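Memo subject: From amino acid sequence to discrete backbone structure tokens
Action wanted: Derive the backbone structure tokens from the amino acid sequence.
How to read it: Take the token row as a discrete description of the fold.
Attached in line: The record itself begins immediately under this heading.
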Amino acid sequence: MEKRADYLDWDEYFMGVAILSAQRSKDPSTQVGACIVNEDNKIVGVGYNGFPKGSSDDLLPWAREGSFLETKYPFVCHAELNAILNSISRDLKGCKIYVALFPCNECAKAIIQSGISEVIYLSDKYAHTDAVVASKMMLKNANVVMRQLSPHIESVNISFKNY
């Protein structure tokens, strides 16, 4: 008998964890997850986008448009920031962060300040926005590697029935 050939590689595995984490988000329009991995390929932090701990998901707005205080934007913590804040280590130097969407400028600041050295992402659909342009400028200036993942597989099926 030979070993399986269709197993996930490390990048697909960690991106899968990020995408699975996104399923915890209650945001009706955008669900993003993040997974931080150290140099030994051990997960040291995960997060998803949502309101700060203790803030009611029912009392704050989820809207994308309207006056600033009537939208989610002043209240939501992004997945990358939550993964950093939830990390089991305060020393993230040399770690990688996996995230489905390229990080905004605010998350880029936290990534740089935390010592994360590589950002692996799936989508760059907001590349034209000022927030992502600024993010890339800062990350490049801080010598943080930015790499778009091209997975070898299209999907992973998770079933709770097989166990």
